[in-house]
Amino acid sequence: MQIQGYFDLQFEAVKEAFAALFEDPQERGAALCVQVAGETVVDIWAGMADKDGLQPWHSDTIANLFSCTKPFAAVAALQLVGEGKLELDVPVVRYWPEFAIAGKHRITLRQLLSHQAGLPALRDMLPAEALYDWPAMTAALAAETPWWPLGEGHGYAPITYGWLIGELLRRVEGRGPGEVIVARAAKPLALDFHIGLDDGEFERVANISRGKGNLGDAAAQRLLKVMMSEPTAMSTRSFTNPPSIMTSTNKPEWRRMQQPAANGHGNARSLAGFYSGLLDGRLLESELLDEMTREHSIGLDKTLLTSTRFGLGCMLDQPQLANATYGLGPRAFGHPGAGGSSGFADPERDLAFGFVTNNLGPFVLMDPRAQKLARVLADCL
C-alpha cells in the first residue's frame, strides 16, 4: 500500500504501523495526523475513499467523524460560558423554558455535557425522517422524562447530546448549532471541519462502510446482545430512535444537517489541529480547559454497559482498561468516533492526535487500530 503525505523520520515506525493496517483486506481508506508542540510530525493517508475502490483517498478527503464531533460542541458551549452567555451550573430552563417538563427543571449544562442528565434516548419511537427535523427532535427531548434520577450515575448520549447542546447554542447565539461551532472552534484555527456540509463538498467525502466478520470485544458483544434482544431498552433506543440514526451516514440529508453529536465532517489534520488549539490556549482559557478535562463521570455507563470516564463533552483516559485507553498518557482526553476515528490530546507530551477511517470497526469505545498507532507513537518520542 502506497502511503502518501509527510512524516518526520523520527516517526518512521508510525508510518510503518499505519501501512500495516492495510494488510487487512477489509481496510479501505484512512488518514493519520500527529502534532507535537504545535508542529506537524506525521500527516499521512492511504487507500480508497469511495464505495467501489476506484477513488483514492486524497490530501483533502474528509469523512464523517461521528462522535469525534462532540468535543467541538463542548468547546463552543464553554466559550459561551467564558463570555457569560451560558452558565455551567444554572438550570437549562433559563435558556430553554420548555425543557422544564417531566421533572427536568434542575438539569444543568454541566450535567448535559458529562452525560449525567438521564436523556440518552427517547422512549416513544419517532419516524425515520424526524432525524432531520430539528424542532421535532428538540421538542421530543424537552418532553422526555429522564431515564434515571439526577445524581445517580451517567449514561452516554450518543446522538441526543447533539440536540441538547445544540439547542442551547442555537438559543443563545441565534443561528444553527453547526454554524456556531464551526465559527468558534474551526474557523479560528483554519480547520477543514464542517457541521452541516455544503453540497459542493460532497465529492471529497469518503464513503463509510462496515467491516464484516469481526464481532469486537466483550463490551461490543454485550451492547449488541441488548440491542438485538431488547428493542425498548434505553441502550437500544439511544442508537435506534429515530430508526435512521445507524443507516444514514452516506446520505445527502445526513451530511447537510447540523447534528453536533455525530455528523461533523473533517480529516485527521482537523482533529489534530483542534487538540493542538486546546493545548496551546487558542480555543479555551486554561481554567475552562481544566474544567473540561476534569473527571465528572466515571464507572459503569448505563448506555454503553462498559466503564466510561467523562469530562465535559470529552472522554477521559482509563489507562487500566484495554477498551478505554487512547494508548498514550493517563491524562489524555478527546473522543473516539463510532467505528474507529479518534481525536485526542496528551497534555504531558504536548501531543495532538487525529486518526480517520472509512472502514467501521465494531468496537464501543476505542478502536484497536488507533490505539496501536498511539502506542507506536509513544515509542518514537
From TrEMBL:
Pfam families listed in its UniProt record: Beta-lactamase (PF00144)
InterPro entries reported for this sequence: Beta-lactam-related, Beta-lactam/transpept-like, Beta-lactamase/esterase
Keywords: Hydrolase
Domain Beta-lactamase-related: 18-371
Signal sequence interval, chain numbering: none
Gene3D superfamilies per UniProt: DD-peptidase/beta-lactamase superfamily (3.40.710.10)
Source organism, top-level taxon: Bacteria
Entry's Gene Ontology molecular function annotations: hydrolase activity
Protein name, entry field: Serine hydrolase domain-containing protein
Species for this entry: Pseudomonas zhanjiangensis
